[in-house]
Give the backbone structure.
Amino acid sequence: MKVITCHVEPDFDAIASAIAAKLLYPDATIVFPNLPKRSKKNFLIQSTIYAYADFQKVDLESIDTLIVVDTRQKSRIGEFAKIVDKVKVICFDHHPDGDINCHEFYCKKTGANTTQIVMKLKERNIDFSAEEATLFMLGIYEDTGKLLYPSTTVYDFEVCAYLLEKGAKLDVVSSVLEETIEESQVYLLNELIHNARIFEYNNISIVLSFAQYSEYVAEAANLVNTFLSMKNADAAICVFRMQSRIFIIGRSINEKVDVARILKTFNGGGHSLAASATVKDLTLIETLDEATLAIRDSFLYITKAKDIMSTPAKCVEKTDTVASCNEIMAKYGINSLVVLDKGNLAGIISRPTLQRAIYHNYADEPVEKFMVTDFYTVNEDVPLAKIKTIIIEEKQRIIPVLRNNEVVGVLTRTNILNLINQTEQKLMRKTLKVDLKLKNKLDEKIYNFFTIISEVALKLKMKAYVVGGMVRDLIMDIPIKDIDIVIEGNAIEFAKEFSTIVGGKLIAHNEFKTASVIINGEKIDFATARQEYYDEISSGLPHVEESSLKLDLYRRDFTINTLAISLNENFGELIDYFGGVKDIKDKKIRILHNLSFIEDPTRVFRALRFAEKFNFLLGQQTEKLMKNALELGVLNTVSKNRLFLEFSLVLKEEKVVEILKKINDYKIFKYLHKEFYIDENCFNLINTGKDFVKMCTFFCPIEFRIEAIYFSILKFCFRKKFNLTNILGIVDSKIEKIYSQMIQINVFLSKRRKKSEIYFFLKPMALEAQIAAFAISKSNYVKEALISYIRDLQFIKPLVSGKDLITLGFKPSAIFGKILNDCFEKQIEGEFTSKQEAIDYIKNKYLN
């Protein structure tokens, strides 16, 4: 059986090539890998030509000949890669690169692959219909940009003229290529425009962007073409996340920009002007980071030796003395020279070598005795990427540049390294002015602090940024709490200068390169921009090094927490490297890299806490990686102290029950103990405590530790199975004391008590213990007693004091306490309600 196929996600050139190949091999069956059944391409093929075979119905074992068009790469032909080394293979591709071993390979440099196959049809006098001619024209027009791309050749023009003679209809071609895009495509195109980042070097620009959609959207390649024309760039690399898969499509209109080379990073395929790749095992953010590096590296291929060499080269003859060569270097301020032998390249010599030779009294010796003769040279068309390898890996200080074996210039180590740094352009930041929002959301005092921080940054020549939760909350229009500032520079030095200006109190933490400034109750935290690394897979604290803002943000937990606001010359601009605004808009919690939960397993709790707190959902990849990390047992590697700190944050949330239920759903607690599962009864107790907290807050407007209440309830629920204190490694004695008091209260109130007994017993007890005791008790009496104390009893003030006793004639002595306590007990029990009644009681009992 003969089968004709092409690359996955076929464009019109691939489809037209396959139809044309069918005319060359009429006994072959066309099989398009993963062509969407409802796509425009499918409709055109079936309505104007004929149907193609369904891949699912093709028996690979029955194939003896495979005809591959528009590619020669195994990674791009889907399931056919399994048999490509077992059958006869015939390839038609207009680019020579590929790893398929072909028995026959037809390759002609044309703008479209269809062109060379139609040329074969013409040579063999094989006729075809006007409909087929139209489809062939469509393939050529799409792949050559309507014959406008620089890759277009004279063959493409000649074949198009031939197709017109055969009845090709240009109006049909035009209508297909310019068809109105669907709503989903409009959405993706808008996302590409919004998320665009530009790289520029030597008048070459490459735009990188990304877009996400919940369902698969066909014709994405056409969107990239439209996007590229709108951005007026030389090339575009577009990353699409559709459903749970990530695709990359690259398009170029400048032969200097090879998008296939860029996408080789992802094992992609295609040619210099059009390429694509399917990404596996990377998150969207990691894919964008890898694409960023690949784009930057691509500039190293655009720049050639002839563009950057120093010319003419400073040369000496091998017979020149060491001393004279050293004088030439000093005169021109250079560190290396090219050595010639009667005009022909013989070697290179460096200043340190000459100076050592002079030190050893060889100044008058010929330089040939000390020159290096084993070295690399390059021709003038060698790209900077190869030059970089020679300079860095081979540690060669100077590289002669040759044209026809003649030295026409030199490349020096210093100049190349400087140039490489210039090409490592920073990702262009998407910015959005939030200065006005800052003014509206912050009180004037805090906003003024930010302006002072901006002035300090300018003075100290550092960079300052507001980061983290505050920026997230600002975008989400929710109340702002903590103020965190990241400094590109020394944060402690910065905070010291700031505190001097505002008259605040400075608290420095040299070990962590952080500082806090407290001004009239307001605290502003300053941290040096840093990156973290881990020695091994563990959950101890990471090692910290100074870094840049971007790397500082990259170490954070989720994209929504990676936003920053500049307090520098571009004051008030929002910086969003990792799509945080997009995820806030889409209500998604996403991690930044695949090892995020491995490096910090407590992020498992944080992910679910944020998801419930903000009514967000976990991203598909994030959820998958979280489950994988849990299966690896990462929670068992976390120090108990860190585990409890993260768990405490969960207990402090308003939606504590919802968060705990979500943690339950993922069976996360069971990774800590096999019987750690919160049942409905326990949730009911927590809800009871939560309701009682609201009442207590009304009667007792004081701050208390809400997490201690819920912890005590949980510990009580699991008291017969395990000790929650040991599971979480709690070392907080106050929390343990609250649990102990909660138990004591319930034991004490298990019997009916007088009001005065309740008062004196509960008075030293923490309010948290009283609330927890209320929640776990099934006794109405206990609940009523606690309500009575919190609402009324605790506020009773003694009617009689020591001064009153002195007025009555008592002399200060031990009896004072006995009388006052006796009197206060009677007052609590309601035996008298006025001071006079209390005085009369004292007179009758103690003065008669």
Summary: The CA atoms of residues 354 and 510 lie 47 Å apart.
